[in-house]
Design goal:
single chain; D-amino Acid Aminotransferase, Chain A, domain 1; 3 domains; 5-stranded antiparallel β-sheet; 11 helices
Length: about 350
């Protein structure tokens, strides 16, 4: 018997376009003999629409012209997707939801809360893990007791930002260069490097466009590496991949628009360092109460060889160039098998 699955993509975040690419992987590798799939796209304005033309409509953008609203109901007794056709209302009973959403309102606990209310199993982390991991400031607070090194940082709120005070604080506590990051944004959106007071101010103003809370972090000179984790209470970590950025740092353009940026699926490093990263990734995933999947990012500092935690992504990208599915595939798990496993983890976690 087929399972009824709702796949959601798009969303109101700055990562809307990345979500549109990620969802294509799920639709391509889901076995139509196992799943009855309904696809729902959320526009940038927040409108929920039924996408009946599949991948073709998503690629062309035709889905945004859909005349059929479709939304998940919070009623736990119905567990349904409500489809509003001209001829009347249609209820699609839902077994599991795959929220292929990155960033705010998708990866931050918002839609996870709706699904918890509706008592519908869903792929990925729950409300707490999603919310904490989306907020870089609070992630640091949760990870701190693990004794895993993190970049030193200063938090800045838009409403209380004082340029002179912050410039003095950065100069005294962190030194230049520093990285400026919106606390609640992914795909390196709004991230800038500052080398002095003038560029710091400019970077903060840019970051405030995306979030009222911003982190200023010390610059870690080192290699950027990533580890995929999968599981609920029994968690496994992949090998460690490495990012080779074509630009000064791995920002949005470097990640998605520069073909010279490359990824290595099994990075060259001492075995002890590899194991330390894998163990740290599992520990961090556990600390935020993670479920299903996450990608945990680190630096390996050039001078010391120390492992430095960067951030955790609770619904990492699934695009053609995304590290998470490639790292899992390198472990001998095909993308179809990965999706099947993630769906089963979602169902198991709801029991």
């Amino acid at each position: 018997m087929k399972q009824n699955v709702v796949v959601i993509f798009g969303g109101q975040s700055t990562e809307h376009d990345i979500s549109k690419k990620s969802v294509l992987t799920f639709l391509q590798y889901m076995d139509e003999n196992c799943y009855e799939v309904k696809v729902v796209g959320i526009t940038k304005e927040g409108k929920w629409l039924l996408v009946e033309g599949g991948k073709e409509d998503i690629l062309s953008g035709k889905w945004e012209k859909s005349k059929v609203p479709a939304m998940l109901l919070p009623d736990a007794t119905l567990k349904s997707l409500l489809i509003h056709r001209e001829k009347g209302l249609e209820y699609f009973k839902v077994d599991v939801v795959i929220p292929v959403l990155h960033g705010l309102y998708g990866e931050d606990g918002s839609i996870q809360g709706l699904l918890k209310l509706a008592k519908i199993p869903f792929v990925g982390c729950g409300v707490l893990a999603s919310a904490v991991s989306m907020d870089k400031f609070y992630t640091k607070l949760v990870v701190e007791p693990l004794a895993i090194r993190q970049a030193r940082y200063i938090g800045v709120y838009k409403e209380s930002y004082n340029r002179e005070v912050i410039e003095e604080e950065v100069a005294n506590e962190l030194g230049y260069p520093v990285f400026v990051k919106p606390s609640n944004a992914g795909s390196s959106i709004g991230v800038s490097k500052a080398v002095d007071g003038a560029t710091l101010h400019e970077a903060l103003l840019n970051a405030f466009i995306h979030d009222r809370k911003v982190l200023i972090e010390e610059h870690i000179q080192g290699r950027e590496v990533e580890c995929a984790v999968i599981g609920n209470l029994e968690v496994k970590a992949s090998d460690v991949g490495e990012i080779l950025s074509a630009d000064d740092f791995y920002d949005f353009d470097s990640k998605y628009n520069n073909p010279e940026s490359k990824t290595i699926l099994s990075a060259d490093m001492p075995e002890a360092t590899r194991q330390r990263i894998r163990e740290a990734a599992i520990a961090i995933f556990g600390a935020v109460d993670g479920r299903g999947l996450s990608r945990v990012d680190f630096f390996i500092e050039d001078l010391t060889g120390e492992v430095v935690f960067n951030e955790i992504n609770t619904f990492p990208g699934f695009t053609d160039i995304s590290m998470y599915p490639m790292l899992i595939e390198a472990e001998g798990i095909t993308r179809s098998e990965l999706i099947d496993h993630l769906i089963q983890l979602a169902i198991d976690d709801c029991i």
